[in-house]
Design brief:
380 residues, alpha+beta, FAD/NAD(P)-binding domain, five-stranded antiparallel sheet, three-stranded antiparallel sheet
Length: 380
Amino acid sequence: MKGLVSDLDKYREAGGKVNMATFPKEFPHLMKCTTSTWGKIQDSYIKDAKLKGIISALWGYFGLPPSKLASLYYILPVIGYLRGGGYYPIGKSQRISDALVRFIEERGGKVMLRTKVTEILVKDRAATGVRTADGTEHRARVVVSNANAYDTFHTMMDEKEHLKDYLARMDKFTASLSSFQVFLGLKKDLVKEAGLEDTEIFYETGYDTEESYRMALNAEVEKGGFGLTIYDNLYKGYSPEGKNTLNIIALQGYDFWKQYEADYFAGKKDAYRKEKGRQADILIKKVEEKLLPGLSRAIEVMEVGTPLTNVRYTGNYRGAIYGWDQTLDNCEPRRLPHDTPIKNLYLAGAWTRPGGGYGAVIPSGLQCFAQIMAEWDKAK
């Protein structure tokens, strides 16, 4: 892991201008990691199955088990945690969004909430603006889509003939796992009573990460593990005095919830709510038995989100929380680039490079902006 970071630093210092004939010798770790899954890297050093399970316990952060996950997506974030720790914004994650809005508006931009874009306007294979749900058209020199890549090209424009090769490549990718989440507000400080000091706890039912992934894919909450975030251990004052805020999460595939999709969006949610409640109860009981005795009796507020909730509120294809699966054929430098076959249309976010998660999508926007500026500069 250290070797990969060292090679990347050396590669950056060279400005990407390296002799490809000697690349494997000069950058051995980078060469190995860009062509290997995390499982293959791990197997070359470790034989003990339990130790592999422990070392790869954070696989859920990246949505794939070691056998499928591109090694770059495990190594770089994890060594970052090990060296520098993790961080959380005081004032909750909404503060990040608020800061971005403030930055945009202070520079003359406008942020329009509750304004859904339904179409990207294209003329002569070049993006010229967008049309919103109310029919309003906004013209622009460039369009940057932070919407999921699938809908960007499949439903927001009619350029299928021109995009045939691009879509054929994209349609080979698979969308990442989604999530089932239980948000809880407790009427007492149960965390203090239990003596828990961690902010995040991952509970697994075994050491086999491949089996954990299979159970997540099939939404087998009865057999699978969970993640617990204890927000009050992040900083003092997160919740009102004497209370707690918790989140229980289980990664899940979308296919299980597809049976409820049509009724869900038609407003017929009885069967969906019954299943949602059943799974939430299972997860609450698991946390109660393993970590927080008395949890079910201490609940004051509860909100439950499923993969269908993710689709409804984020618009992400299949409720995916990491964009495309971060496999070897869809990782840096092979991940979908920011520029697209449609002139003046760019991608930013989890569905393009460098990848999914806060640590990748914020740099994604910066990278995309830098590329646009460089292309404008060249065109002068």
